[in-house]
Amino acid sequence: MSLTLSALFVNFNSWRLLDRALRSLCAAPPHGPDGQRLTLEVIVVDNASPLRDAAAEAELRGLVAAIGGVFEQSPDNGGYAAGMNRALAHARGELILVCNPDLLFLSGTVDRLVAALCADATVGAAQPEQYWDEDLQCRLPAGHLPTLRELYRSVLAPLWPRAARRHVAERTQAMIEVWTAPGVHELRMLSGCCFLMRRATISRVGFFDAGFPLYYEDTDLGKRIQRAGLRIVQVGGSRVVHLYNRSAVTAQGVATERFQVGRRRYFARWHGWLGRASVRLVDRLHRTALVRRRLQRLPWPVVVDCPVVDGRPLLQLPRRVERFLVEHANDQWFTLTAGTFGSGDTWSPRASLYANYPATVYFRVVDLSAPGGRLLGIYRHRRTLPAEATR
Asked: What residues form DSSP beta bridges with 344?
């Protein structure tokens, strides 16, 4: 008897992106580990998107009907977790695939996730490798489990630049381990953009907590999976392109506010009174004049503004390097970094990657051929975004 795979999507102002995601998912119908084709159903919940596109919405509804599934218009935006819970209520599948609307699925992505999940009863959730661009040039950040130590580092780092540099270097090594891992690799944290679970596991550990309006809901679910003695794994060769954060930027103020709510709830749940007190203290410290001033200053000795060649930034390294890593970040502290590997004495992003960059992007280049990795330089690029990039 064929298994049913239910693919769950929550939409917020992402009509065209979601249409592409569904078409890419259906371009390679999923199969089970025995090669038998799975029954695919798609559940879409629109979280009361304020930016409407009548033509795209009609096309999307038609596509969902053609695939087989449900399109639900939520009367309000209760947050991503609440939207996913609405979608799960409609799902009939034994396998549940959680998906952001801004994904592109590559051939074999879902098949490999299904095979890894079904092959090992200790796997509670399986997720693909995540790329930022369609040329698969740049890996997106690997999950970095939030801890009280990391929370305090976020406010103390600006006061001690040497400690900040050491912290970033440690995080880089952790990212490299995930980005270069072959086969099935165990992760410390669940990424909510795309993962596969058994319905039986959801019955055991629960699904998303709707008290998290945006952000931290996946981290919380991952902690519950691990608490149950199950593993979270990345499946090598299973790949998605994640056009990162396209929905949140359409309502940045709301996203920021909901991030704060999610962070407070997460630390209170997993660290009790100490977690609640720590978040309050860190928030107060971040608002102090000293920390605000220091956050405007780079913790690096020299930052080089990149020349622009053929319309894109060109990083000119101090010497030729056998193998290097270019980290990409939106902020000067490299809080969250994507990564690209290369060799030679220069590097420039391809057009598909460059199209995803924000107005200002920072690059950190590390020589991986040197023991422990050696910092080669910090670079910055500023660009003028087209008007449609912010809509």
From this structure: 321
pTM of the model: 0.92
Is 4-249's fold the same as 303-390's?
Answer: no
Among 240, 219, 31, which Cα is nearest to 125's?
219
First-residue to last-residue Cα distance in the chain: 45
**pLDDT digits 0-9 by tens, 153-189:** 877 777 788 888 888 888 899 999 999 999 999 999 9
Dihedral sign for Cα atoms in the order 85, 87, 89, 92: negative
Instruction: Domain 4-249: give its CATH architecture.
Output: Alpha-Beta Complex (3.90)
Pairwise CA distance, residues 378 & 286, whole Å: 25
Whole-angstrom Cα distance, residue 168 to residue 16?
36
Please write the tens of the pLDDT for every residue from 202-227.
999 999 999 998 889 999 999 999 99
Measured in whole angstroms, the distance separating CA 3 from the mean position of its chain's CA atoms is 28
Q: Could you tell me the two tokens for 116?
A: 């890894």
The overall average pLDDT reported for the chain is 90
**Phi first, then psi: what are they for 125, rounded to 5°?**
-155, 135
- The owner of tokens 């084709």 is 37
Cβ–Cβ < 8 Å for 204, 228: yes
What confidence category does residue 63 fall into, taking pLDDT thresholds of 50, 70 and 90? very high
Beta bridge partners of 97: 7, 196
Q: Give the C-alpha separation, 197 to 207, whole Å.
A: 10
Architecture of domain 303-390: Sandwich (2.60)
Domain ranges of the chain: 4-249, 303-390
Calpha distance 12→66 (Å, rounded) = 22
Angle, helices 217-227 vs 252-286, to 10°: value is 70
